[in-house]
Amino acid sequence: MGLFILRRLGVMLLTALCLTFVVFFLTNLYPNLEKLAKTQGNMRMSDAQVSSWLDSRGYTQPLPRKYAEWLGVAPGFTSTTASGEQIGRCLRPGVDPDKAPRFCGILQGDWGYSTVFKEPVTEIISVRLSLTAKLMFWVMVLMVPSALLVGVLAGMREGSRTDRSLSTASIATTATPEYVSGVIFIALLASSRFGLSPILADAGLIEGKTLFKGTATSAMESANFENFFLPVLTIALYGMGYIARMTRASMAEVMTAQYIRTARLKGVAFRNIVMQHALRNALIAPFTVIMLQLPWLLNGVVIVETLFNYKGFGWTLVAAAGNNDIELLLGVSVVSVFVVLVTQLLSDIGYVFLNPRIRIS
Amino acid sequence: MEPLTWFGAYAGFFGSFLAVFATLAVLAGLCSMLLALTDSSPRGSFSLFNGIAVVTLLLVGIGYIYNALSPSLSGGMELAALGKILLGLLALGVFAAMLGVFMKTFFDNPAETMGSLFALMLKLIGLTAVAWLGYTLLFAGAGFRDTLASMDPAALPTGEELAQQKRIATMQGRGILASIFMRFLPVWIALGLLFALSMAYKRKLGLYGKLFDNAIGIFGFFLVMFWVFTALFNGLFDMIATHGPLDQLSGMKNKVPGTPLRDISEGAYPFYLLGGDNLARDVFSRMVTGSVIVVMIAPLATLFAFMVGITLGLPAGYFSGPALRKGSLGMIATGVVFGLATLAALVWGGLANFLMLAVILGMLFVLMFRASLDTVLSFLANLILAFPVILLFYLLVTPEIVETGLPQYMAIVLFIFPIVFAGVLISSRFQTDPGKNRFWLMVVLIPMAVLYAVTINAPDSQINLLGPLDFFNPAPGVLVVFVSVVFVNSPTVFRIVRGLALDIHSRDYVAAAQTRGEGPWYIMLWEILPNARGPLIVDFCLRIGYTTILLGTLGFFGLGLPPESPDWGSTINEGRKLLSIYAHPALPPAFALLTLVLGLNLLADGLREESLKD
Fold first, then answer.
1. Which residues lie across from B276 on neighbouring strands?
2. First to last CA, chain A
3. Structural element, H or E, at residue B94
4. Helices A284-307 and A121-156, interaxial angle, to 10°?
């Protein structure tokens, strides 16, 4: 087991290196740098001005060198402009240039400086990530129990009317991407002129103009049912169908097992068979699915945070990518790749622990 | 001119029926739910609504405790409100129990009785809807005839004016929904023909015929074919859409569904059926035209992803030894490709890049003598899969990246796989018959190679070698979108094919083929692949749906296709900006995308069920 984890950690490290290098390569292509120079400096810069702007900030160094600087295995770039002002990778506004460290990369714990938000990347990511963690927590609270419930109910009597209707419903939720369900929810529940809200408001059933809020910006400080339920529901719904179907398949398989038949023949009540004998074994497979779902939900998070204007991690990804904010984008990709790989690892380990057949052999 | 109503002139009569049925259905449904809540029949089932009630109570309870512990965190939601919900749920439970006791005196099994009443009401609602549609379509012009009859014969309009007035009056009689139904008339006819023929000959049609035994599969197939026919009729014959997707008509900005045009020119469709969008374009026409883009790109991109996945996945699952052997053809080929890549880096990338690439590729080359092909390819596939899709799109599809020509370079690599696949497929089959082999290779590969060249080549880009010979150029942005979607999809296909190949590899018929002395590629493509077709067909359907979702995602973030493009993702993106005020421009494309993807998923489900039966 120890060797397995070590091996996986090695592969993870290699994957992370490769991926960050790909991101680094793509963000450092010349047209992207040109865009960066124009947004940071002046929109009307000539080509010569652009290249001198890039030169003076070390963007035109060879790619491996720049990557090594970002990693922290090569000393950070420094130069002096014509006006005698010192510029360097490791220099931050308001810090004495002489006191700045020579190396400043990931290995030194310095993730760089965002050119869009004018803040250190570590700070942005930690704030944004905590906001997204809040969103994800409520998504999990809503999604996992309801998906398991739907799956168990559908799987315990395979082929029944309940099974067919619940299975079709789960297919429908997996067929509805977040940008479709989100738009439908906003239109039906959060529009002051369309859908349910005007009817409810006329009847005096709701106090405000709309039942829910179409934006979740206020949920960043204080989340409540009104401003947070729609984004949570939108993400949860898309992931729910998949987990439910997995649970259903594994429940249906367990229900045909010999020991369930034995229990039924002994006259154990159906409720007890499901609750005491089948559930535990049926929930092993969905566990892995739920773990692997986490990174997959990241997509939904990006879409929903953009749609509902909730300034979390996904929103930051879009902002960083849209403005070619190289270091922020790298930080974002490191974190997301880390999430993906760690969940894969955890799901493998968890599977071994949950499944006695593998644990004992 | 009067705007169109949703249900037309005859809504009232059928509407009252519908209202009665709907009310009964809601009541029966609620009753059966409530009764199931307190179901204590001897079966002692762990019923659906028991479970839902428990989970809801738990969730509300958690929320209550969470609020009580940290009122500052949750802000607006008051304790009292949650308390009310709790009380309400309890009251509902008590009411349900009483209802159960009350109903028990009349029926043996009240929950079931109410359930079947609910089902009956649903059927009646469906019948009423059909009756309404038929009646409306038949008698839509009747009102106009009455008006004509009551008018002074001398003042009657004549000729074209009469025809125009009659047309408008008929439409007003139909209303929006029935008018939309009429616009789709060619699609209904085609669907009717297709389904009638398929049903008649379903015993002779293999898996496709068996699909018609499965209700869910039929419904999915119906949805899919609806959009396919819509795209066909609209793309080829310009039939379904009422206006051009880019036509902006004055006075139609953000107008609600059914608004008449300000001035009706000769022959133009006089209404915006689903309203106008932010730029005064017809929402209905844009939705219909958008289907052409999706129906063209999604299946083709999925097919390409399958070619890539199959061509790489089969050998990864089949060969278990090291990827390269000394002196083998594979070693020479890999060496040449790697050498060319490093040389290219030296010429265009500078010394530092050359050194780095040389070290990386050299290490990979040495590694491939130790590790299996599977290890190397799986690592690469996992690398792509570890990327969040949207990040990948933002890195690949921005205008700046398109300027560098990167999508075209990726197309060079990805589009070669169908050619390789076809070449290997043919040459492994006709290995013993060189004449036939050469003939078929020429017939298939030459057109493919020409298509390959003209697709990759584009004027005013990094790759423009053909110049005037380039006779085919996809619309702007389409190639980029296509390549990125293929790139995102192929690793998953690779993993599926690899898994299937690993599984089938140990079957007896593979061993038999090996004993016969068949080559590895013959076994892979003519023994393993046909036997893996079931899961692959199912996944193909699912994956077209996923590709549609990906295309929508690209449009939603405004990547790839130009912003005025009528594809569903872009229209949703356009519509969502004013969503809380004008909901109508965003909803039709959203529902269109939803129905197509739902159809594909249901179709895949039906196919899976039917293919598992034998």
1. B282
2. 12
3. helix B79-104
4. 130
Question: 């359930």: which residue's tokens?
Answer: B115
Which residues from chain A sit within 8 angstroms of residue B59, using beta carbons? 141-142, 145
Write the pLDDT tens digit of every residue in B486-500. Answer: 999 999 999 999 999
Predicted complex ipTM: 0.90
Of chain A residues 73-92, which have a CB less than 8 A from chain B? none
Contacts of B62 in chain A (CB under 8 A): 141
Q: Which of B347, B322, B396 is nearest to B550 (CA)?
A: B396
A158/chain B closest Cα distance in angstroms = 13
- Of A331-340, B59-68, B179-188, where does mean pLDDT reach its minimum? B59-68
Q: DSSP assignment, residue B274?
A: T
Are the Cβ atoms of A176 and B594 closer than 8 angstroms? yes
CB-based contact, B34 to chain A, within 8 Å = no
What count of CB pairs under 8 Å joins A to B? Answer: 204
B52 Cβ under 8 Å from any chain A Cβ: yes
Q: How far is C-alpha A186 from the geometric centre of its chain's CA atoms?
A: 22
Mean of pLDDT values over A256-282: 86
Reported pTM:
0.89
| Residue B142 in this model has a pLDDT that exceeds 70 | yes
CA distance B431 to B519: 9
